[in-house]
């Protein structure tokens, strides 16, 4: 069982690491670029949740009240649990 889990984690690293590092290196000058880069990362996490964890999620933007303090925008992926509560990753 742990070998399967380790293999899946290495797939996630292979997907996320280059995108994450390129996002750090890019340091966008325009808000539109930053938004596009943030959404690209949200899609990476969404794909990983669905393809590696078999967990359907809803990707989106948090409301102003739910955003992190000082953040212009906070993005999230959320999965619904069996009891009707949402599990969030921000």
Q: Any overview of this molecule?
A:
The protein is of the alpha+beta class and 90 residues long. The chain has one domain (2-89). The chain has two helices and three strands, in the order ααβββ. A three-stranded antiparallel beta sheet has the order 1-2-3, with helices on one face. Helix 1 (2-26) packs antiparallel against helix 2 (31-53). The longest helix has 25 residues, at 2-26. The protein is flat and about 40 Å long. The relative contact order is 0.12. Residues 1-7 have low confidence and may be disordered.
The number of distinct β-strands equals: 3
Helical stretch tally: 2
Structural class per helix/strand content? alpha+beta
Compressed to H and E, one letter per element, the order equals HHEEE
- Gyration radius (Cα, Å) is 15 Å
Distance between the termini: 28 Å
- Which term fits the overall shape? flat
Mean pLDDT across all residues, rounded? 75
Please report which band the strand proportion falls in: under 5%, 5-15%, 15-25%, 25-35%, 35-45% or over 45%: 15-25%
Q: What's the arrangement of strands in the largest beta sheet?
A: 1-2-3
Number of domains: 1
Percentage of residues in helical conformation: 40-55%
Note poorly predicted spans: 1-7
Biggest sheet descriptor:
3 strands, antiparallel
How would you summarize what this structure contains?
The protein is α+β, with helices and mostly antiparallel strands. It has helices spanning 2-26, 31-53; strands spanning 58-61, 75-80, 86-89. α1 (2-26) runs antiparallel to α2 (31-53).
């Amino acid at each position: 069982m742990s070998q399967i889990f380790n293999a899946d984690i290495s797939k996630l690293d292979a997907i996320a690491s280059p995108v994450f590092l390129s996002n750090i290196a890019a340091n966008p000058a325009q808000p539109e670029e930053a938004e596009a880069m943030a959404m690209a990362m949200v899609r990476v996490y969404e794909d990983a949740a669905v393809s590696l964890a078999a967990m359907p999620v809803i990707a989106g933007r948090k409301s102003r009240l739910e955003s992190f303090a000082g953040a212009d925008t906070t993005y999230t992926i959320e999965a619904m649990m069996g009891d009707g509560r949402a599990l969030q990753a921000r």
